[in-house]
Amino acid sequence: MLKALIYGAGGGGESVFNEIRELNEPYEVLAFVDIRTGGTTKKGLPVVFPRDIQNYEYDIIFIATQDNTVPETLHREYGVPMEKINSKRFFYSSSGKARVRALEHFRELCDIYGIDGAVAEVGVYQGDFAKHINRLFPERKLYLYDTFEGFAQKDLQQESEGSEVATYTHYANTSMELVLSKMIYPQNVVMRGGGIS
Ligand SMILES: C[S@@+](CC[C@H](N)C(=O)[O-])C[C@H]1O[C@@H](n2cnc3c(N)ncnc32)[C@H](O)[C@@H]1O
């Protein structure tokens, strides 16, 4: 049995944990790692800070967060060997299978229960999930809300408070053009740029 840590104790970490359990994968999860909720517990396991990783003997760390700077930070600042970091099973670009599956299921429910109307995503980043919404709802208007230039300064400050990871991703590397270029039915898309506060 390989010993595993899961980086990210939010919904992502939980789905990775559940998947390992449900599929009887040969991993013993020792702990979750989270910069915000270190010191707590989840699923009966400790949630620790990145600095605590060194106290564990582990074979693999599953990344379960959207912050794509994490592997590099774990390696550089916390000495985690790159070959122990598995960032493939979870989404960076939010194209993660579990979310897409859930969306497909939602589409089916809309058909079964006759739920109509436009669809929307609030917080779009580079459009990697929006493209699935667009694909699965080809007949519907898709509203996309985002600054399309990253977090506002005040939100960024709030988000990174208490963070041990200095280089918090703030989603600035995107644009409306980039998002639109990923859509199968761009004619359905209405973009609303700007901060929502
Ligand atoms: C985690 S990303 C969204 C990822 C996207 N849903 C996906 O699955 O690919 C969060 C997005 O929310 C946007 N955002 C955060 N705070 C916002 C605000 N106050 N107003 C508008 N957009 C905001 C950011 O610019 C960022 O693109």
Contiguous uncertain segments of 5+ residues: 164-168
Residue-averaged pLDDT, rounded? 87
Biggest sheet architecture: 6 strands, mixed
Distance between the termini: 47 Å
The helix content, as a percent range, equals 25-40%
Radius of gyration: 19 Å
**β-strand number:** 9
Helices and strands: which structural class? alpha/beta
Overall shape: it is globular
Total DSSP helices: 6
> Which molecules other than protein and nucleic acid are bound?
S-adenosylmethionine
SSE topology string: EHEEEEHEHEHEHHE
Overall number of structural domains: 2
* Strand ordering within the main sheet: 3-4-2-1-5-6
Strand content: 15-25%
Structural notes for this entry:
The protein starts with a strand and ends with a strand. The protein has 197 residues and is an alpha/beta fold. The protein folds into two domains: 2-86, 3-Layer(aba) Sandwich (Rossmann fold); 97-193, no CATH class. The chain is built from six helices and nine strands; from the N terminus they run E-H-E-E-E-E-H-E-H-E-H-E-H-H-E. It has helices at 11-22, 70-78, 97-113, 130-136, 153-160, 176-181; strands at 2-7, 27-33, 41-42, 45-48, 60-63, 85-86, 119-122, 142-146, 189-193. S-adenosylmethionine (SAM) is lined by residues 66, 94, 121, 123-125, 128-129, 146-147, 150-152, 155, 171, 195-197.
